[in-house]
Automatic annotation (TrEMBL):
It is found in: Nucleus. GO terms for biological process: regulation of transcription by RNA polymerase II. The keyword rRNA-binding does not apply. Coiled coil: none annotated. Its main location: nucleus. InterPro entries: LSDs-like (IPR045109). This is Uncharacterized protein. GO terms for molecular function: chromatin DNA binding; histone H3K9 demethylase activity; metal ion binding; transcription coregulator activity. Keywords: Metal-binding, Nucleus. Signal peptide: none annotated. Belongs to the JARID1 histone demethylase family. One of its GO terms (cellular component) is histone deacetylase complex. It comes from the Eukaryota. It comes from Zizania palustris (Northern wild rice).
Length: 99
């Protein structure tokens, strides 16, 4: 049934494997609810969005921290909140069509 397998450890997902992982997650979603593989559902979207959010927070921290560069000025103090709001909106459950 599945020709390749991916094991995600410690919520790590490399950018190179994102496409394959998303494809496999879609295949798993189409399995019957009592299938063993469905118990190990890949949360590719959530992992990717969490990584992006973490990167934005780190960039914001570096930009706002005067110890790094006191000459840098950051105008949007609400960037992290905006990212968080978008993550919430994007991660709402979507219907998946299995054909």
């Amino acid at each position: 049934m599945f020709q390749s397998t991916v094991q995600l450890a410690l919520d790590f997902l490399s950018p190179e494997s994102l496409g394959e992982s998303a494809r496999m997650a879609q295949e798993i979603r189409c399995l019957p609810n009592d299938h063993d593989a469905k118990l190990n559902m890949l949360e590719i979207g959530k992992i990717s969005l969490y990584a992006a959010s973490s990167a934005v927070r780190e960039i914001q921290r570096i930009t706002l921290d005067p110890k790094f560069n006191p000459n840098l000025k950051f105008k949007d103090q609400n960037l992290t909140q905006a990212v968080s709001d978008n993550l919430t909106r994007i991660t709402k459950e979507r219907k998946v069509s299995c054909s």
